[in-house]
Amino acid sequence: MSSPPAYPGIRISGCWAEGSSNAGSLDRLLPAVGTGRSPRKRTTSQCKSEPPLLRTSKRTIYTAGRPPWYNEHGTQSKEAFAIGLGGGSASGKTTVARMIIEALDVPWVVLLSMDSFYKVLTQQQQEQAAHNDFNFDHPDAFDFDLIISTLKKLKQGRSVQVPIYDFTTHSRKKDWKTLYGANVIIFEGIMAFADKTLLELLDMRIFVDTDSDIRLVRRLRRDISERGRDIE
């Protein structure tokens, strides 16, 4: 079993959860049991000046228009709620994130993966990575400055450019992915709780605890099928 986090928490279905003083405010974002509402999944959104285009008897769907966290004057009415998901490699963080997205009854949810923020490697590091000698599971492998600035902008409702990392070449692609502000931001990664400044931006923190043997099998399968690695 992977070790629980250093901070106090509770274990829920294989997860350790701990929130800041205002973590309870997430309750207002979760659908009440038995309401009959069907969950919606939205990981990116477009923020334009037009009003919402689609209304139903139960809700307004913001297919385009002013984000609901901005008032009629165009100023931000509240900051986005940020959830951090930590855990070992292949522990199921992305799966838990998708379950949270399905459960949330809000128009906009952004999923931000730490895998996008690996640092650009030097020539020596590239050679180490080519021989599987570079440790990608270490805090020094991540660009925390870019992670923090990106998360701050998303919490402010601003759009961001996120790098796209190529795991087969161990490098960033030339293209960047655009993400937009949201009601809720889910940030997941193996080192999601490794930086103090980053921790302060997270309103709730969840640690996904999965058996090490299961994680090993999952990681081998993922690295071979998705990241161009071999069994050696």
From TrEMBL:
Major enzyme class: transferase
GO biological process terms on file: UMP salvage
Highest taxon, organism lineage: Eukaryota
Source species: Ictidomys tridecemlineatus (Thirteen-lined ground squirrel)
UniProt-annotated stretches for the region Disordered: 29-50
InterPro entries for this protein: P-loop_NTPase (IPR027417), PRK/URK (IPR006083), Uridine_kinase-like (IPR000764)
Family in the record: Belongs to the uridine kinase family.
Protein name as annotated: uridine/cytidine kinase
Record's keyword annotation contains Disulfide bond: no
Catalyses which reaction(s): uridine + ATP = UMP + ADP + H(+); cytidine + ATP = CMP + ADP + H(+)
Swiss-Prot/TrEMBL keywords: Kinase, Nucleotide-binding, Transferase
Entry's EC annotation: 2.7.1.48
Pfam families named in the record: PRK (PF00485)
Metabolic or biological pathway: Pyrimidine metabolism; UMP biosynthesis via salvage pathway; UMP from uridine: step 1/1
GO molecular function terms listed in the Swiss-Prot or TrEMBL record: ATP binding; uridine kinase activity
Phosphoribulokinase/uridine kinase domain location: 83-232
Transport is among the record's keywords: no
